[in-house]
Amino acid sequence: MRRTFILALLLVPPASLSAQWHAAILGGTIVSRGDARDALDPDHPEIRADRLVVVTATVAQSLGRWRIGLEARHAGADLAEASDAAVITTPGVLSAWGAGLEVAIRVVGRAAGPSLYAALGAGADRWSFDLDQSTPRWRSAIRGALEASLPIGRGWDAVARSEVTRSPSIFRADELPEGFEARAAWRRGVALGIRRTW
Predict the structure, then answer these.
(1) What is the DSSP string of 129-142?
(2) 143 CB contacts (<8 Å, ≥6 apart)?
(3) 185 forms bridges with which residues in the sheet?
(4) What are the distances in angstroms from CA 105 to CA 21, 66, 126?
(5) pLDDT per residue over 34-88, tens digit each?
(6) All residues at 6 or more sequence positions from 7 whose CB lies less than 8 Å from its CB, including other chains
(7) Distance between CA atoms of residues 173 and 103, nearest Å
(8) Cβ atoms of residues 137 and 127 within 8 Å
C-alpha cells in the first residue's frame, strides 16, 4: 500500500503545476552581422540582411516553471553592403516566413506576477529575395532569449524580449561577388508585445 501511495504521488503533479495555455504576439527589430564577408579587404565589408523587422505569433503551454511553445514569424529586411566606412542599402528586398519550437524556464518571479524566463529555441525560415525573384531558400536557426512579462490585466501580460540567433548564411556561394565568402549570421534583437493566458 505504501509503494502504491508513493507511486501515485510521483505520477500525479501537484495542483500548483496545473497547465496554462498562452497566446502572444510580438513585434521587434533585429540587428544582423555575418551572412557574407570579404576577408581580403582590410575593411572586411559584409553583405547581409539589415534592419530586420519581425512579427511573431506564439502558442505555448506552461507546466510549473517550464513552458514549451510553437511560433510563426514573418520578417522583412533590407539588403546592405556594410563596412566601417560606409553602408550601401537596398531597402525592403528580403523577406522570410518561419516557424520554430522553444523551451523556456522561469528563473525569476511567479506565474501570476512579474517574471523573467530564459529560453532556447530552434526553427527554420524560408527566405526570399524580392528584387530578382531568385529561388527561395530554407535556413535553420538556433536561438537564446530572455523574456520579461508584467501583468497588465486579468489574464493579460505585457512582454519584453531580448534574443540572439545564429543561422547559416542566407546566400549561396555562387550568388556572392568575387572575394566574398558565406558566413554564419548572428542576429540580436528586441521585441515588445502582449500575451493572453487562460
Answers:
(1) ETTTTPPPEEEEEE
(2) 100, 102, 119, 120, 121, 122, 123, 163, 164, 165, 166
(3) 167
(4) 15, 5, 28
(5) 889 887 777 788 988 888 999 999 999 999 999 999 999 999 999 988 887 788 8
(6) none
(7) 33
(8) yes
Answer yes or no: are the C-beta atoms of 190 and 157 closer than 8 Å. Answer: no
Is residue 88 within 8 A of residue 81, CB to CB? The reply is yes
Look up the pTM and report it. 0.79
Residue of 169, 126, 188, 132 lying closest to 37 (CA atoms): 169
| H or E stretch at 128 | strand 115-129
DSSP secondary structure letters along 39-80: SSSTT--EEEEEEEEEEEEEEEEEETTEEEEEEEEEEEEEEE
Phi-psi region of 50 (alpha: psi -120 to 50; beta: other; left: phi over 0): beta
Amino acid at 27: G
Please choose, from the candidates 139, 189, 143, 188, the residue with its C-alpha nearest in 3D space to the C-alpha of residue 168: 139
Q: Give 96's strand partners.
A: 75, 127
pLDDT tens per residue, range 127-170 = 998 766 668 889 999 999 999 999 998 889 999 999 999 999 99
